[in-house]
Amino acid sequence: MAETLGILVVEDESDQRRLLVRLLATRGYNTLEAADLATARRILASTAEIDLVLTDWKLPDGDGIELLETVRERSGNERERAAFVMVTAYGTIARAVEAIRAGADDYLTKPFERQALMLAIERALEKRRLENENRRLSAELDERDRLVDLVGKAPTMQRLFRQVEKLAGTSATVLITGESGTGKELAARALHALSARKEQRFVAVNCAAIPETLVESELFGVEKGAFTGAEKRPGTFASAHGGTLFLDEVGELPLAVQPKLLRALQEGTVTRVGSSREEPVDVRIITATNRDLRLEAREGRFREDLYYRLAVVPLTMPPLRERREDIPLLVRHFLARSARRHALPKPKLSRTATRQLLDHTWPGNVRELGNVVERLVLLAEDGEIQDVDLSEAVASTQEQGGGAFSLPPEGMSWEAHERDCLSQALTLAAGNRARAARLLDLPYKAFLYRLDKHGI
């Protein structure tokens, strides 16, 4: 193995440096040499194949600790860390200890014997090999626990990961079900990112957000003059050609449009509004809903034939309450993501705040947890999140009230009351927006409008 390894020798005394280089070369190592810190840094910046740095403590323009810092900066997720051996003069053992504490793998004191040098190099290389291997294994485990942006170690999530990995290589139509905030779109994006279509577009459409009169033209496109002011433009099917089309809240599609979606799925063609010509499209369809589409079909609110065409392979996103063991992992993920997004230091969680996060019911599921953690990162003081921060964040995310309503004599704020009713309905429905809308006897789209209006 030695013949494939590269060693950078940093020594300002030319005779000593040439002696070391010759010795290492006879042992099969590829060697590079530098007489000072600046040269060593230039070599490290331009040469990838350096497995170990052997350096004197005292250099003309710096010291070995500065070079060790450069080696540490050079390493990262994409590049494994080089081993590091420090050489110090006799009587400077304190410096050697300082180097070990700073991250050096071993040290030698001058004068040293040839055997001691080779033993230190072999020991440092083996130590670094084991550490790099452990880092790779940890990264593989982390990747297995995190599929694209889906995070979880719970058995339900591990089963979901296996299903996504199996389905990603197929063109099967997938229906993703689950409560609001469980990560249905993340699962759809994972299916796309792991598929052969990953280089093509992923187009996401929220069916509940499109006015009913525009759904058909949004999906299938429109010809110029099809209606007053209409200009020719492609629909989302055409925009996603070659890639993946994700139809979120598919249960909100008007019944009049559902037969056309069924035909597009069966025939692989679409017809623009105002046209009689069918256009072929190559699109993988993934849909999502928090409704029970089987029940909707039985009660006549959704076409049964379309349901079976969409649900060729169903995936279910588990609510957070069914995988509470994932909360610490998710919190770490959201802390890092929020700190990175806002260019802030990642704060620490106090023990009390951690316990509150674990004990909260999270009716809004992963989305609610992510929003709360992001707010905590923004409001953290002195690099730590205390329990009062968490209490304020949860209160602002999920306003809760109780008791029957009666208009007080002095009057009230209707906006606050409406927000309170919406929040209570979501809590009672465990975050399921369709169920919450029914609790308030509101049309689903009207309910969504009010949620958006109040920023819930």
Class by helix and strand content?
alpha/beta
Q: Can you tell me the overall shape?
A: elongated
Low-confidence stretches: 140-146, 398-404
Spatial strand order of the main sheet: 2-1-3-6-7
% residues in beta strands: 15-25%
Mean pLDDT, to the nearest integer, reads 84
Count of strand segments: 18
N-to-C CA distance? 60 Å
Radius of gyration: 31 Å
Helix content: 40-55%
Give a short account of the largest sheet: 5 strands, parallel
Q: How large is the count of helical segments?
A: 19
Structure description:
The structure is a single chain. The chain is built from 19 helices and 18 strands. It has helices at 14-26, 37-46, 64-74, 93-102, 114-145, 155-168, 184-193, 215-220, 236-239, 258-267, 293-298, 304-310, 327-341, 351-359, 365-379, 387-397, 414-428, 433-439, 444-454, and strands at residues 6-10, 30-34, 52-56, 58-59, 62-63, 83-89, 106-110, 146-147, 150-151, 174-177, 202-206, 244-248, 269-271, 278-280, 284-289, 313-316, 348-349, 384-385. The strands form six sheets. The protein has a five-stranded parallel beta sheet with strand order 2-1-3-6-7, with helices on both faces. A hairpin with a 6-residue loop joins strand 13 (269-271) and strand 14 (278-280). Helix 14 (351-359) runs parallel beside helix 16 (387-397), helix 17 packs across helix 18 (433-439) and helix 17 crosses helix 19 (444-454). The chain is elongated and about 90 Å long.
